[in-house]
């Protein structure tokens, strides 16, 4: 059986009033309501307002031990006691806000290392929503705008937390019409996969095993590794050629395991379909462990 941490990558604006299936899944993936859960609100300029509805819902779901961790300086993020709280959590949810604020605050600090430690040593569930989702990638989509067409220079990348590598994650994907922004990034960085997650939707990643889409929407995979583009030869703001980009859309309820991994799943034990060939490499990359976690 697979014994490892898992990721829950959420597209933002998860339903909290009637359906609570995404947050219920977070609790389940962390080991149940008796476990120790932490909200990391460092991406937000209003941490108390950000955390309050989550604490209400976690209480409704029967969780007794849930707390917030917020840092505003790198000195705070290097505090050993604070990092220890993160390292010993069973489930950690990185809330929304501004991913640039988050990484400027915690990137490379003791708290950053504690997140990886929790995933690797405690087999914790690490979740991120909205800005927290984008920051889960090693190459983080920091900012950008391209509503009507792909444009060179429309997406700005920065260093992320690195729980998934060679992937750029965008959130609020369909609702904010962000496919052109993600295509713009892929045009200039064809070695990166693009992953777009709709609002009130999450991608469950059991490392080394497979994935599942839950919630109200879907996820979009973009693969430009085999494409032809003139992005290097045009000016910023111009539309690039993108020939041969592969696009895959998985609605809620889609779930796949890698070949030979069906019997190894713990968090995805109910998922039995083997990933079809066109997305096997994408899923293999998403579920790959890295040296830190």
Automatic annotation (TrEMBL):
Top enzyme category: hydrolase
**One protein family per Pfam:** Peptidase_S51
Active site per the UniProt annotation: 130 (charge relay system), 172 (charge relay system), 199 (charge relay system)
Note the Gene3D superfamilies from the entry. 3.40.50.880
- E.C. number, please? 3.4.15.6
> Does the keyword Protease belong to this entry?
yes
Catalysed reactions, as listed in the record: [L-4-(L-arginin-2-N-yl)aspartate](n) + H2O = [L-4-(L-arginin-2-N-yl)aspartate](n-1) + L-4-(L-arginin-2-N-yl)aspartate
One GO molecular function term of this record is: serine-type peptidase activity
Q: Name one GO biological process term.
A: proteolysis
Q: Which UniProt keywords apply?
A: Carboxypeptidase, Hydrolase, Protease, Serine protease
Q: Does the keyword Protease apply?
A: yes
Family, as annotated:
Belongs to the peptidase S51 family.
Which purpose does this protein serve, as stated in its record? Answer: Exopeptidase that catalyzes the hydrolytic cleavage of multi-L-arginyl-poly-L-aspartic acid (cyanophycin; a water-insoluble reserve polymer) into aspartate-arginine dipeptides.
- Which NCBIfam families did the record assign? cyanophycinase (TIGR02069)
Q: What name does the UniProt record give this protein?
A: Cyanophycinase
Q: Which organism is it from?
A: Pseudoduganella flava
């Amino acid at each position: 059986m697979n014994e490892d941490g898992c990721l829950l990558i959420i597209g933002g604006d998860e339903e909290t009033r009637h359906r609570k299936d995404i947050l219920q899944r977070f609790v389940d993936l962390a080991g149940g309501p008796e476990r120790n859960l932490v909200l990391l609100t460092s991406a937000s300029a209003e941490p108390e307002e950000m955390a309050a509805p989550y604490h209400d819902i976690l209480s409704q779901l029967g969780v007794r031990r849930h707390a917030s961790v917020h840092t505003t300086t790198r000195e705070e993020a290097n505090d050993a006691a604070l990092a220890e709280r993160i390292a010993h959590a069973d489930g950690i949810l990185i809330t929304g806000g501004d991913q640039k604020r988050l990484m400027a605050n915690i990137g490379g600090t003791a708290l950053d290392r504690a997140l990886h430690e929790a995933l690797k040593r405690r087999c914790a569930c690490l979740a991120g929503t909205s800005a927290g989702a984008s920051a889960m990638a090693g190459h983080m989509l920091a900012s950008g705008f391209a509503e009507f067409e792909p444009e060179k220079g429309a997406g700005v990348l920065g260093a992320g937390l690195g729980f998934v590598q060679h992937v750029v994650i965008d959130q609020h994907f369909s609702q904010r019409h962000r496919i052109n922004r993600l295509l713009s990034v892929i045009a200039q960085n064809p070695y990166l996969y693009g992953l777009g997650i709709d609002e009130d939707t999450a991608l469950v990643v059991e490392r080394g095993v497979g994935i599942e889409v839950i919630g109200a929407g879907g996820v979009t995979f973009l693969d430009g590794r085999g494409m032809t583009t003139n992005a290097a030869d045009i000016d910023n703001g111009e539309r690039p050629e993108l020939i041969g980009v592969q696009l895959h859309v998985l609605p809620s309820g889609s779930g796949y395991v890698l070949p030979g991994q069906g019997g190894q799943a713990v968090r995805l034990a109910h998922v039995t379909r083997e990933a079809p060939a066109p997305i096997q490499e994408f899923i293999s990359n998403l579920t790959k462990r890295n040296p830190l976690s």
